[in-house]
Amino acid sequence: MNISDRRRILGPSNAKLLTFDKSGPVEIEPISSSSVPNSTSMYIENGLICNANGSSYLEVTGSTSEADRTLMLTSVYGPRPSRGAFNAKATLSVQFKEVTLEKIPAGELKELCNFLSNVFNAVINLERYPKSGIDVFLSLIHSSNGSQLYELESIISTCVNGITLALIDAGIEIFDTVSAGIYEKHIVAFVKNGTEIVGFWKGKDSASESEDILSIIEQCKLDYLKNRKAMVEYLVRCNDKEDHLQHEVTKQ
Amino acid sequence: MVLSVTEKLYLHESLVSNPPARPDGRSADQFRPIEIFTDFLPTSNGSSKIVASDGTECIVSAKCKVVDHTLEEDLIEVDVDIAGHRDDSPLVQGTLSVLNRVLLSQIDRGSLRLTKKYSFKLYIDVLVLSSYSHPLTLISFAIYSALNSTLLPTLISSDDDLDVAELPTFHDYDLTKLTIKVPVLFTVAVCGKNVIVDPASSESDVANNGILVTWYDGKVTAPVRTLGLNEDYVSGITPQSLADGLKLIEDIAPKVVKALDS
After folding, report:
1. Is residue A20 part of a domain?
2. What positions does the domain Exoribonuclease phosphorolytic occupy (chain A) (predicted)?
3. Is A197 in contact with B235 (Cβ distance < 8 A)?
4. What is the pLDDT of residues A6-53, one digit of tens each?
5. pLDDT for position A37
6. Is the pLDDT of residue A65 over 70?
7. What is the CATH number of domain B1-30+183-261?
8. Where residue B167 falls among pLDDT bands split at 50, 70, 90?
9. I want to staple A206 with a disulfide (CB 3.0 to 4.6 A). Which of A8, A104, A184, B254 is the partner?
10. Chain B residues with CB-CB distance to A114 below 8 A
11. Nearest-angstrom CA–CA distance, A168 and B140
12. Which of residues 3-22 of B touch A (CB under 8 A)?
């Protein structure tokens, strides 16, 4: 502190720095809603992959039992320049890979990637990044669901949430925080506080066949709001922690 | 046909207006005229050719093989080839995966049962000769008519072969008609608040989103999901539009199936 910085105007040498009253470093805890029975809980960690522009790690514990877990690592590269023909907007590509056991048929993965790129084509402000490409890589680390080998429904919703967090981490402009909600084998990806649907997926028939589609969407919306709340809370906490760290640095 | 930005905008505006003004003058729930020919391939058990008014053409052939169903899990196998698209392109792979999954999950295995040990396995080959719009609806219509015109060899040996093992033997020339319920897939385009069925290629280019709806045994079944028809105009849709899309299919699907049956 006694070395005077001659590159900046610092005021008189006997000036005292302003000190702000702030509590200690903010602890980031796993966000869970385990108090409510029959609900999923989510653990989020952003920015784990350093050479990607943005990344997110998501651990989702299923609603039925503790053993149902989905672990997903998402990385976003871009916007990076694309060669060749001139494109007025960015092109988005989504790749999905199972890094441990390969259990999902290749065709189903292709469908999933198509679906996800369709969802995020509607959400990313692609006009803002001309002549560039945004690549999303999803690595499914683990997925288990009791009797089934894998549960595509929870994987899809984890993908949607993971990509959103990774895009936010990469600083890529999106119109809204998109998040997915599940209800009885239906997955709905919402934006704009649940008033708009960017993706709907019903892969298997469920028990609630007679139920009205609008009431199913309403149930998915509740799940969406919960997931989005967890994601936003995590991002706000991260932001607070960063602010705090920055403040610590300036104090020294 | 590639449309300019202005043309697309004009088309989008007219499709969003109430009622939607479609470029070919159809109403929202109207299909393009289609022509179907069946049983024209002498070497396959069932075949069909479908031609849409925009020149989209698709040929489907169904062949059968006797397999041991205790060893063979999947009794239907679909193969899709779309002219002008690589086999590993998202369109071909996605279409193939949807068709395989729909047919395997919905079609009753019992209808292909021959004896207690053996079943027919159906190989369905789809060849799209030219496609100008999303080909899934036409492919599924073609599969529907091919399977409904499929003739299988008549079994003359006993159908109980658990105690006395015997290979199934067939009649020399008698054939039995395959009776099977086949799911039909529909694509619906959402433009603003409007939902339109069977979008032509120009309409797909400006649609806000697409919905894939499966119709089987008189009701909407899985898979139902949103489908990207283009990359420029894709946006969110309201829950009401989704419900409207399903309602539209519920209204028109019985008529379509009736037309395909006749």
Report:
1. no
2. 42-173
3. no
4. 666 667 777 777 777 665 555 555 544 444 444 678 899 988 899 999
5. 44
6. no
7. 3.30.230.70
8. confident
9. A184
10. 90, 94, 228
11. 40
12. none
In a mutational test of the A interface, the residue from B73, B193, B242 whose CB has the highest number of chain A CBs within 10 Å is B242
Structural domains in chain A (count) = 1
Q: Do B209 and A106 touch (CB under 8 A)?
A: no
Nearest residue on chain B to A199, judged by CA atoms? B226
Distance (Å) from the alpha carbon of A5 to chain B's nearest alpha carbon: 52
List of chain A residues whose C-beta atoms are within 8 Å of the C-beta of residue B237: 196-198
User: So what's the ipTM on this one?
Assistant: 0.89
Task: Report CB contact under 8 Å: A197, B225.
Answer: no
Identify which of B157, B175, B176 has the alpha carbon closest to the alpha carbon of residue B165: B157
Contact B90 A114 (CB under 8 A): yes
pLDDT of residue A106: 84
The answer regarding whether domain B32-181 maps to CATH 3.30.230.70 reads yes
Q: Which two tokens stand for residue B58?
A: 């698709």
Q: What is the spatial distance between Cα B237 and Cα B9, in angstroms, rounded to a whole number?
A: 18
Report yes or no on A206 lying in a domain.
yes
Measured in angstroms, the CA of A161 and the nearest CA of chain B are apart by 17
CA distance B143 to chain A (A): 19
Dist. CA A22–CA A25, nearest whole Å: 9
pLDDT tens readout for residues B59-84: 999 999 999 988 888 899 999 999 99
The chain-wide mean pLDDT, for chain B, equals 90
For A175, half-sphere exposure in the C-beta direction (CA atoms, 13 angstrom radius) is 17
Count Cβ–Cβ pairs < 8 Å, chain A vs chain B: 97
> Is B146:B184 a contact under the CB 8 Å cutoff?
no
* Beta strands B118-130 and B57-68, pairing class: antiparallel
